[in-house]
Amino acid sequence: MRSVLVTGFETFGGHDENPSALVATTLDGREIAGARVIGRILPVDLDGLDAALDAALADQNPDAVLAFGLAGNEAVIRLERVALNVADFGIPDNAGVMRRNAPLEPGGPDARFSRLPLEAILDATLAAGIPARLSDTAGLYLCNAAMYRLLGRLDASVPCGFVHLPPLPGQIARRLRAADGRPAERGASLASLPLELQVAAATIAVATTLAGPGGHAGGSENLF
Fold first, then answer.
1. pLDDT tens string 169-203
2. Residue among 101, 114, 116, 117 at smallest CA distance from 148
3. 15 an active-site residue?
4. What pTM, to 2 d.p., does this model score?
5. By C-alpha distance, which of 132, 147, 115, 122 is closest to 198?
6. Does 216 participate in catalysis according to the annotation?
7. Which of 17, 80, 216, 221 is catalytic?
8. Right CATH number for 2-222 from 3.40.50.300, 3.40.630.20, 3.40.50.2000, 3.40.190.10?
């Protein structure tokens, strides 16, 4: 049976949940489009990231790798096009480390591009009624680092890329409660997406990726 590695991240930066971890654990062990999903959680720790990626890939020969992470102010599913060879943190990682303009791989390429069928994933996700968009930056924090280093570890024939997820409704509700319903921010920064739709979007991304170039995931009744 084919296999797909799906990764998420632990909580970080004051967030009390990370939907990417919940997506990875929810999909772990499931079968999607004839492939077994292996779900793993990564640390928000740049110095520990390499060991975690090695452990996630140990004894695995995945047919595809899809990494997920939380974008706290994102309103929709965000499909990342590119990872940059730089760490430039806005907040410390969970080990308390603050990196500024540091290369992720000295001597490595300036950027690595997603090998996921992003346009097909976008079309299939929107057709399922789930909001999504393409993005030109995975940021400069651990999500970018994971994408860059995964792409560098895997053979060029293996589809691999990164997807950012918005907060869960409960996270936004707790943020609003802490502000007594009167937050300073407005609009998209208070948007959220239920976990079941995030899992559905991840399932679509996996199935569409496994369908290969020019393929399609089929009807939603075949995915969930």
1. 999 999 999 999 999 888 878 999 999 999 999 99
2. 114
3. no
4. 0.94
5. 132
6. no
7. 80
8. 3.40.630.20
